[in-house]
Design a protein that fits this description.
Elements: E1 13-16, E2 22-25, E3 28-29, H1 32-35, H2 38-49, E4 55-56, H3 57-65, H4 73-88, E5 94-96, E6 99-101, E7 108-110, H5 111-128
Parallel strand pairs: 1-7
Antiparallel strand pairs: 1-2, 2-3, 4-6, 5-6
Helix pairs in contact: 2-4
Length: about 130
Amino acid sequence: MPNDAPSPEGPRFRFTLIGRFTVHQDGRPLADTILGSRKQRTLLKLLLINRGHVVSTEDIAEALWAGNQPAKVEGNSSLLVSLLRATFGTDAMLGRRPGYTPPPSPLADTVVEEAERLTAELKARVASS
């Protein structure tokens, strides 16, 4: 995500993927309107859920247009990624054949990743007891 230093209280961007989708920047919630269209938010969720893996343009098209794909799927997908980059920084989404992926970053975190870290910490504590 952006190259700014993380804030002292944690990652610059925090994404809630369980329950209502929300994004916090430096601890403050971002309005849906800042996150863009429904398709932009859906693409962001798809990429975050698959973080660490490349999501193909074909999978993006299926998730966003479900059989009603526009003639220029790659161009439309590219535009949506560009709009996400405008919100989260130019390095927020990497283009990797055959699609896109958000890079691992200490500046962005999801509640899923936090749950995985907490589970690993708990397991380590129990194992050392």
